[in-house]
C-alpha cells in the first residue's frame, strides 16, 4: 500500500510513552504505526518529537490593543508561537485585549481582528464582569464562544482591564451559564485578602518577588476555591478552576469531584517548571497570579498531575513589552508569562531534568 504521508525516524509520543516509530497517514488520519512505509510524501523527523497537536486551553492574545496595547503581541505572532510549540488549537481568554471580550460586540471585534491572521485554530471564552448579566452571556453563546471566564480577584498591574466579580455576580453568572451547558472557567483567589496584603506590602516598601508571593498566600486561593465550589454545587454549573497553584487547592477540587460537583482544574507549565526559590532569583519575569510557590508545591503538583487529579496543563500565555517587566516594584510588573511555545516541551523535558 502506498500511503499519503509517512513521518519517519521521530520519537513519537504514544499513549504509554515515547517510541521511535514511523507513522503512516491517509486522508489526514493516522492509519498505521510501524517501519518503512511506502508513501507519496515523507517527512524525516530524525531528532524530533512527533506528538499529538496540543490544545492550549488558556492563552491571552492581544489581537486588539485599544490604542494602549497596540504594540503588544497580536494574532500572527501569538498563534505562530503556539504552532512552533506543538499547539494546534488554543482557547483565548477574554482579557488583556482592549476592549475586553464581554458581549457580542467585543467578541465580533476580536473575530474580525483574527481574520486571516491565525496560524492555529482559535476558540474564544466570553468574559463575565459585574454589569453584563443582561443578555450578554446568551449573546456570546449565540456567537460561538466555547465557554466563559470570570475572575474573583483583580490584577494591580492591569487596572480597568477586566473587572473582577463579586459573589452575587459569580452566583448569577453560574445560573445563566448552566443554561448554556458550557463551562465557566474561574480565576479563584480571594480579592479582599490579596488586595489588602498587596497594599500593605507596597506601602511599607516591600516590593520583591518574595513579598508578592506572600501577598497571595495559599489560604487566599483555597478559601476562594471552596466558595466557588459551594456555588457550583448550589447552581449545578459546570466549572473549571484555572491555574491552580497549590496542592491544597487541587485537593479541595478532588474532594468536590467525589462529592459530585462538575469541576475540573488546570495547572500551568510555570508552576510545574519553576519553584518560588527560582522565582525569587529571577525576579518580575516570573511574576504571575497565583504566584509560583515553594518546591514542595511544585513536587506535589507533578504528583497530582500523574495521579490524574489535575485534568489538564495549559500555558496562561501572555506577553507584554519588556519595559513592563523591567520594574523594581514587582507589584507593578506585568503579571504573566509567554509560555505557549514551550508548554509541551517543558512538560516533556522537566521530568528528565529532575532525573525521573
Ligand atoms: Zn490567564
From TrEMBL:
Native organism: Lentilactobacillus farraginis DSM 18382 = JCM 14108
Sequence ranges assigned to domain Dihydroorotase catalytic in this UniProt record: 49-248
Gene Ontology terms for molecular function: allantoinase activity; cobalt ion binding; zinc ion binding
The protein, known as: Allantoinase
Signal peptide: none
GO biological process: allantoin catabolic process; purine nucleobase catabolic process
Obligatory cofactor(s): Zn(2+)
Gene3D superfamilies: Metal-dependent hydrolases, Urease, subunit C, domain 1
Keywords tagged on the record: Hydrolase, Metal-binding, Pyrimidine biosynthesis, Zinc
NCBIfam families per UniProt: allantoinase
Keyword Metal-binding annotated: yes
Keyword Metal-binding: yes
Amino acid at each position: 500500500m502506498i500511503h499519503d504521508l509517512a513521518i519517519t525516524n521521530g520519537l513519537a509520543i504514544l499513549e504509554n510513552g515515547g517510541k521511535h516509530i514511523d507513522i503512516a497517514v491517509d486522508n489526514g488520519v493516522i492509519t498505521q504505526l510501524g517501519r518503512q512505509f511506502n508513501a507519496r510524501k515523507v517527512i524525516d523527523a530524525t531528532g524530533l518529537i512527533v506528538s499529538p497537536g496540543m490544545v492550549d486551553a488558556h492563552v491571552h492574545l492581544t489581537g486588539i490593543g485599544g490604542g494602549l496595547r497596540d504594540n503588544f503581541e497580536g494574532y500572527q505572532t501569538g498563534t505562530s508561537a503556539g504552532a512552533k510549540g506543538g499547539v494546534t488549537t488554543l482557547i483565548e481568554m477574554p482579557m488583556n485585549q482592549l476592549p475586553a471580550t464581554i458581549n457580542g460586540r467585543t467578541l465580533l471585534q476580536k473575530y474580525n481582528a483574527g481574520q486571516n491572521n491565525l496560524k492555529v485554530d482559535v476558540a474564544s471564552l466570553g468574559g463575565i464582569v459585574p454589569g453584563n448579566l443582561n443578555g450578554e452571556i446568551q449573546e456570546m453563546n449565540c456567537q460561538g464562544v466555547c465557554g466563559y471566564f470570570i475572575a474573583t480577584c483583580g490584577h494591580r498591574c492591569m487596572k480597568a482591564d477586566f473587572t473582577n466579580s463579586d459573589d452575587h455576580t459569580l452566583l448569577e453568572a453560574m445560573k445563566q451559564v448552566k443554561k448554556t451547558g458550557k463551562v465557566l472557567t474561574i480565576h479563584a483567589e480571594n480579592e479582599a485578602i490579596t488586595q489588602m496584603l498587596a497594599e500593605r506590602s507596597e506601602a511599607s516598601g516591600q516590593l520583591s518577588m518574595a513579598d508578592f508571593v506572600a501577598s497571595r498566600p495559599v489560604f487566599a486561593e483555597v478559601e476562594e476555591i471552596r466558595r466557588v465550589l459551594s456555588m457550583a454545587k448550589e447552581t449545578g454549573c459546570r466549572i473549571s478552576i484555572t491555574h491552580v497553584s497549590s496542592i491544597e487547592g487541587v485537593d479541595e477540587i478532588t474532594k468536590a469531584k467525589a462529592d459530585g460537583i462538575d469541576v475540573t482544574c488546570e495547572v500551568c507549565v510555570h508552576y510545574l517548571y519553576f519553584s518560588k526559590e527560582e522565582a525569587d532569583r529571577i525576579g518580575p519575569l516570573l511574576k504571575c497570579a497565583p504566584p509560583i510557590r515553594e518546591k514542595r508545591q511544585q513536587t506535589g503538583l507533578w504528583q497530582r498531575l500523574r495521579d490524574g487529579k489535575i485534568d489538564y496543563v495549559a500555558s496562561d500565555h501572555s506577553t507584554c513589552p519588556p519595559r513592563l517587566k523591567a520594574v523594581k516594584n514587582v507589584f507593578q510588573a506585568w503579571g504573566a508569562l509567554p509560555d505557549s511555545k514551550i508548554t509541551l516541551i517543558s512538560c516533556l523535558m522537566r521530568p528528565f531534568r529532575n532525573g525521573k
